[in-house]
Amino acid sequence: MNKNYKLLAIDLDDTLLNGQLKISSRNKEYIKRAQEAGIHVTLATGRMYCSALRYAKELELNLPLITYQGALVKEAQTGEVLLHRPVPLVLAREVIQRGSQLGYHINVYVDDTLYVEKITPEAEVYQRISGITAHPVGNLLDFLQEDPTKVLMVGGIEELDRLGEEMRCQYGTSLHICKSKPHFLEFSHPQATKGLALDTLAKGWGLTAEQVIAIGDAPNDLEMIDYAGLGVVMGNGEPEVKAKADYVTHSNEEDGVAEVIAKFIFGA
């Protein structure tokens, strides 16, 4: 067994979850083995806390979960909030206004609840993926009166790429802007990244980055992959993310997470 690694952070969609949004029995087995060997195991996801929690319960995780890309770190068992970095209201309203002008479907997250203007086909797909109910509230600018945890736009891949560049030029370091999926463009607090959240957890346990393994697949995983002593990208990961990997494992359909645990923690 490799005694150097003490903390394992795993992304959910397209990483731990297969195409049916399930955790395979082999991945479950190796996560349990890692826990029994004394490894801290947590989830690091762009999902809402309430959406990630059911998977944490399935895995019997009892640690803080990194959710909303790192904007919210919250205990899986007690629900205690350890870290919350929301989007400043003024900036959130500007982002919503721009997205509305362009006709995009927009998700707004407040108090771990999902709000939308109306139930669109995009909202229906998102509900199905996340397992969370969307609440239609009409005009989002009229509705939003406090800092949201995150704002998300759904649209075409190339169109969102262009919008992402436009918004990065406009907001510079005032917002963290990234894609969690090709059709999802996300706006969050500039320090709301999986990497910074993971650093907070590691330091809380007296660990260094070299003792951390992070596994992901998408651009929103780049910060934690760069942070970790071992940054792993799934075989199905995007090319720009693979380019930053210390190691590329099997795909999410081939139990890539289990392969990493077997190889780097148990030396199998």
From TrEMBL:
Looking up Pfam families in the UniProt record yields: Hydrolase_3
Q: Which domain of life is it from?
A: Bacteria
Q: What is the lineage of its organism?
A: Bacteria, Bacillati, Bacillota, Clostridia, Eubacteriales
Q: Which GO terms describe its molecular function?
A: magnesium ion binding; phosphatase activity
Protein's name according to its UniProt entry: Cof-like hydrolase
Keywords associated with the record: Hydrolase
The terms describing its cellular component in GO are: cytosol
Q: Does this UniProt record's set of keywords contain rRNA-binding? A: no
Record's NCBIfam families?
A: Cof-subfamily (TIGR00099), HAD-SF-IIB (TIGR01484)
